[in-house]
Amino acid sequence: MTSLGKGALLLLFSYAIFFITGYGIYFGLARILTLEDFGTYGVIIALVSVVTVVFGDSARQIVSKFASQAPKAHLRSLALHSLRVFFIAGLVLSVIFFLASGLLALLLNDSSLTPLIQFSSILILLQLEFSVLVGFLNGLHSFKRQAFLESSYYVLKLAFVLALPLLGFGLFGAIGGFIIAVLAALALGFLACFKSLFSKGKSASRLKAKNFLHFSIGVFLTTLALHLLNNLDLFFAKALSPSGSSGILAGYYIAASTIARMPQVFGIALAGVLFPLVVKSFSKRRDFALRQARNAFQYALMALAFFAAFFLANPGEVLLLAFSPEFLPAVPALEALLFGASIYSLFFLLVVSMMAVGKPFRAFSIALAVLALQFLLTFFLAPLGLFGIAAALSISLLAGFFLALLVFQKTAGFLPDFGKAFKTLACGLLVFAVSKALAFEGIGLFFEFLIAACLFALLLHLLKVFSINDWKHALRLLGNQP
C-alpha cells in the first residue's frame, strides 16, 4: 500500500474516533443534564459549528494546498503567515458572533440563549487556529501526526465536556469543557508543528494564495450549504416550537438526529479519501477516477441500506438503549430522519466528487436549491411537529440527490451501477423484515444486530453484489492503485 493509502487508513481511524467520542458526548450529556439543557447544548454547538466547520474546513484546505507545494525553506513563513491571517479572521468572526448573540437568540425563539452564545464565541477563534495546524500537517503528508492530533482533540473533548457538568458546572460547564479541550489540542498542535514553526526559512510568496483563495470561494460556499443542510432542521425544531417547550422538543430532535446520522461516518469518510484521489487522477485517468467514485458510492449505499433498515425496524428500542424512556416521543422524528440522513450521505458523496472534478459552483448551486426547497417544505410541514421538520429535510434531500446524480452524469459521465444498487436496497428490505420479526429489546438488540449483519452479508454475496473482486477494489481505493 502507498503512503497515501496508509495516510487514508490513519485518517479513517481518526474519523472513527471522532464519531465514537461525539456520540459518547451526547449519550453522556443526555444522562447528566436535564432534557432542556441537553437540547440547549445541542443547539448552541450546532450554531457555533456552522461557522467553525465551514471556515475551519476552508482554512484546512488552503493551508494544506500550499504546504504541499511550498519549498521546504518557505514552510516556516507559510505556517506563521497562515496562523496570523486566520487569527485575524477568527477574531473578527468571534466578535461578530458575540455581537449577534441577541439576534440569534431571538431567531431561535429563546432569549436565554444569549449568554451561552456569547460564551461559546471564543470557540470560533480557537478552532480556526487548530484547523490551520491540522491543514499544515496534512499538506506535509504527516498523516500520522495529523491523525494523532485530531484523535487527541476528540478524546480531550469527550473528557472535559462530560467532566465539568459531572462536577456541578452544568450547561456552562459543558461548553467550557469544549473550550478547554480546544486549548489543550492547540498546545499539542504547536508541539506537533514545532520544528517547522521555529526553524529558519525564507519568505513565501503570497500571490498563489490569493489565486487559490479566489478559486476556493465555490468550495467554501458549497461547504457552507452542506453543513446547513445537516443542521438547519435542528434550528427549525428549536425556532418553530412553542417557546415554553422548545428546549425539550430540541432535546427530542437531537436524540433522533444523533441516532439517524450514525451511518454518515461511512459516506463522509469515503468522501475524505475519494476527494484527493479524484482531484489527482481525473484529468489524466478519467475512467479510473470515475470507477473509484462508483465504487465509493456502492460501498456507502451498502452501509446505509443496512443501518437504515435495522434502525427503522427498531426505532424505539434503539432510542431506549442509547438514551432513556424519556426520549421515546422522538421516535416519529427518528423514522423520518433515518431516510433523510441516509440520502444525505449519498448526496454528499456526489457533491464532493463534483467539486473534485473542478465544478464547485455547480455543486453549490445544487446544494443551494436543496436548501431553498427545505425552507419551503419546512414551513409547509411544520404543523406536523418534529416529524414534519424531519420529513421536509428527507424529501428535499431525495430531490437533491436525483438532481446531483443527473448533473454529475452530464458533467463527468458518472453513473452508479444501478443493478447492484437495486439488489442492495432489496437486501436492506429483507433485513428490515427479519429485524422487525425478531423485535429483540435491551441488550438483546446487539444479538439482533449481529444476526441482521450476517444475513445482509450473506445476501450481498449470494446476489453477487459484493465479491472478492469488490474487496480488491476497496483496498485499491485506500491504496490509491489503478
UniProtKB/TrEMBL annotation:
Location relative to the cell: Cell membrane
InterPro entries found in the cross-reference section: Poly_Biosynth_Transport, Polysacc_synth
Source organism superkingdom: Archaea
Membrane topology per record: Multi-pass membrane protein
Membrane-crossing residue ranges in chain numbering: 7-26, 38-56, 85-107, 119-140, 152-172, 178-199, 211-230, 250-275, 296-313, 333-352, 364-382, 388-408, 420-439, 445-466
Chief location of this protein within or outside the cell: membrane
Keywords on record: Cell membrane, Membrane, Transmembrane, Transmembrane helix
A GO cellular component entry from the record: plasma membrane
Protein name: Oligosaccharide flippase family protein
UniProt lineage: Archaea, Candidatus Iainarchaeota, Candidatus Iainarchaeia, Candidatus Iainarchaeales, Candidatus Iainarchaeaceae
